[in-house]
Amino acid sequence: MIIKVLGSGCRNCERLEQHTREALTALNLAGTIEKVTDVGEIAGYGVMRTPGLVVDEQLVVSGRVPSAVEIAELLGTAS
Amino acid sequence: MTLVEAVPTTRRGMAAALVGGFAAWILLYWVNEWVWDWFFYELLAMPIEASATQSLHFFCYDTVKITLLLVGIIFVVTVLRSFMSVERTRALLGGKREGAGNVMAACLGVITPFCSCSAVPAFIGFVAAGVPVGVTLSFLIASPLANEIAIGLLWTLFGWRIAALYVVAALSIAIVAGWVLGRLGVQRWVEPFVFETRLGGQVIDPSAGLSFDQRIAMGIEEVGTILRKIWPYLMVGIGVGAVIHGWVPTDFFTTYANSDNPFGVFVAVVMGVPLYSNAAGIMPLVEVLYDKGLPMGTVLAFMMSVVALSLPELVLLRRVLKPQLLATFVAVVASGIVAVGYLFNVVLA
Question: What ipTM does the predicted assembly reach?
């Protein structure tokens, strides 16, 4: 599972990444987390308010930081 | 973060926490001045008239007051705004012509949850979806200028008339500046890759399908996030405000920069552009400058130029806008602010 955290390094992006790691650990899933900081690429995924979360090239979260529990549910359905 | 983990998960717990928080807020706001009066004048027995006492009292009192106001305003506005999103705004603006589009973009800029750190992806997202560049700029100008913190603080500190006047002025600047920039044909100064960006994937609307509890939790989180981000600016603003409050003689500005002074507003705007702060950080200064006799139009123009035009945001926007456009953008917006400042000084005199 390839997970991308979209955001140019603001605090919300760090929190989203942290919540995602927690969710991966909780689900016992192996996934690689990549950071996407290039604005052109971020916009290309359709995100207009950072942060965003992309799982296997599918945008699943945009413009907010869900809790680790919510991300775990999202990852659960995606895998 | 402890704050977030402390959010109760049950309905009843949530309601109790909200009511408790509200009561604590009222109590703190109510005793704030009284506590500091007692602390400095009674406990420390400092002379009331001394500049140092006045400065320290102002600093402590204002820090508590502005922090409380921010907590309340950010929480309420975040919960209300969780029903709105940039995606929804873009859908509403799609297919709008210039003119009506500028008006709508500016109004939506007030109610859409937005942070200037997302100015670039939003710009690309709007333009790539066919929203005219001038209309997009109206949105990007209105959003920081007529922001909820500025409006909420102005309302509580100066009353609703000044707040309403400020909103009307901010919207007018955003509408006119965006329209003028569109007429000037600034599209040619947008980096070409913006028009070539293909928007992939499905659109996720962050405002949809959230439970009430989630919206409340977002509000609490946002309070923490914003306070952590802006506190250095707030401290600097209150610190400078405290020094002016204590040491600058009353009516100083009435003598040197009254509303008859033709350069007052102009100088205020020129000084405000390179200064970088946010609405919350600038508010203690606004309060104190007005107290010392600076006319309201000049004060608001200063505030607008600090909030609307900031170097870090221009650096971010440089990624999508060429230097010619940035320069035109600054010139048009600054002219609008100067005009509004003079108008206010005439109207409010």
Answer: 0.82
